[in-house]
C-alpha cells in the first residue's frame, strides 16, 4: 500500500466516522501502510481529520520505521499482512489491536498508540493553531 493509498484510506475512515456519528463535530481516520523509499520499505500510519461544519481537513503521519527484508519477504512474496507476520513471529495474538508492529519491533519502547498520537496531533494542526498559517 503506497502513502497515497494509506492517505485515501485514512480520509475514507474519517468521512465514514462522520457519516456513522451524526452528532460528531470531527471525523478521524487512521490507516497504516507500507511505502518503498529509495529501495527500502517503511511502515507508517496516516491520520486524517475532517471538520463536519466546514469540510476542512488535516493530514498527519506517524514516524516511519524501516522494515526488515525478512518481514517484507513474508508480506510481498507470501502475501501475508504485516499484522499476521508479527503475530506469527512474536507468538502473540492480535498485536495490531495493542502495541502494533511498532511496539514489537521496538521491544515496547514505542507502541503504536504513542507513535500514532503524534500523527494525530499533526492532522489536528489546522484546527489547533491560528488560521493565518493555513489556506483560506
Automatic annotation (TrEMBL):
Ranges where the Non-canonical purine NTP phosphatase/PRRC1 domain occurs: 1-128
Record InterPro entries: ITPase-like_fam, NTPase/PRRC1, YjjX_NTPase
Gene3D superfamilies, per the entry: 3.90.950.10
Cofactor: Mg(2+); Mn(2+)
UniProt GO molecular function: ITPase activity; metal ion binding; nucleotide binding
Presence of keyword Nucleotide-binding: yes
EC number of the protein: 3.6.1.73
Top-level division of the source organism's lineage: Eukaryota
Pfam families with a match to the protein in the record: NTPase_I-T
Reaction catalysed by this enzyme: ITP + H2O = IDP + phosphate + H(+); XTP + H2O = XDP + phosphate + H(+)
Keyword Protein biosynthesis: no
The entry's keywords: Hydrolase, Magnesium, Manganese, Metal-binding, Nucleotide metabolism, Nucleotide-binding
Alphabetical GO biological process terms: nucleotide metabolic process; thiamine metabolic process
PANTHER family (UniProt xref): NON-CANONICAL PURINE NTP PHOSPHATASE_PRRC1 DOMAIN-CONTAINING PROTEIN, PTHR34699
UniProt-recorded name of the protein: inosine/xanthosine triphosphatase
Amino acid at each position: 500500500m503506497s502513502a497515497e493509498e494509506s492517505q485515501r484510506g485514512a480520509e475514507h475512515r474519517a468521512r465514514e466516522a462522520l457519516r456513522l456519528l451524526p452528532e460528531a463535530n470531527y471525523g478521524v481516520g487512521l490507516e497504516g501502510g507500507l511505502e518503498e523509499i529509495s529501495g527500502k520499505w517503511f511502515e507508517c500510519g496516516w491520520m486524517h481529520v475532517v471538520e463536519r461544519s466546514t469540510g476542512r481537513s488535516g493530514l498527519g503521519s506517524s514516524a516511519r520505521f524501516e522494515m526488515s527484508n525478512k518481514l517484507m519477504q513474508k508480506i510481498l512474496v507470501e502475501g501475508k499482512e504485516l499484522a499476521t507476520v508479527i503475530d506469527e513471529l512474536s507468538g502473540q495474538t492480535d498485536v495490531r489491536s495493542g502495541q502494533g508492529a511498532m511496539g514489537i519491533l521496538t521491544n515496547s519502547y514505542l507502541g503504536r498508540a504513542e507513535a500514532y498520537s503524534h500523527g494525530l496531533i499533526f492532522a489536528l494542526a489546522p484546527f489547533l493553531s491560528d488560521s493565518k498559517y493555513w489556506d483560506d
